[in-house]
Amino acid sequence: MNKGNDSSGLKFHKLAEEAREKDKHLEALKFIEEAIFNYQKEKNYSGLAKALQSKVLIYRHLFWITDDIVYAFLTQKDAEASLLIAEKHNLSKIISSCHFSLGKAAMLLKNPKEAIKQYQMAIEKYYGTNTEKGDYYYHLGEAFFKDDQREKGKETMLKGLKQIEKYASEVDPFLVHVWSSGCHMYLAKALKEENYQEAKEHFKKAKEIIDSDEKLVIRKRQIKELAKSFN
Q: Which one of 70, 87, 160, 186 has the largest count of C-beta atoms within 10 Å of its C-beta?
């Protein structure tokens, strides 16, 4: 199995991730399909399952941009395929991220109860850095909000944010900025009606993080949209 730096699957996978973060989602789709093809040829099933999870992220962004439910369906199917591959090949280290992807798909399909179930399974089976686990809690909190469990949602998101910040040195600063700004932005949206001042503080923190990192292309687009509701 070819998992080294000479892996064609890995090369295209990295190109797909870079294109997605630049908000170039159609380009990212082309690269991720190449990655999937090459991972399959290399019999690198861990890479293949992870590539499907990357495809889930691309479809999520396309769903948000187009508001086309088809992308939510595609998200669900690729998340399911990732889990099936991980289970078939006993890839215990990525089972948690498979459930995480299924949680994201359930959120797009407006099924927060299923999302809560999947996110909780992802946390239970978690394998990875403490920082990223904080991101899992942030998404679980979002699902609680959508399920009208607002206090639990806020408490869980703040727990995730605290963990992201506490263990920030474990991962690339870019990831810390993506996760922490996303959490602050969601709290700004979720709390705006009931506590405008607190919401505005979260908006301010999100903007400070986003403005500090030129690589946060998607977040810069998102914060501009969110700013309209605070002006």
A: 160
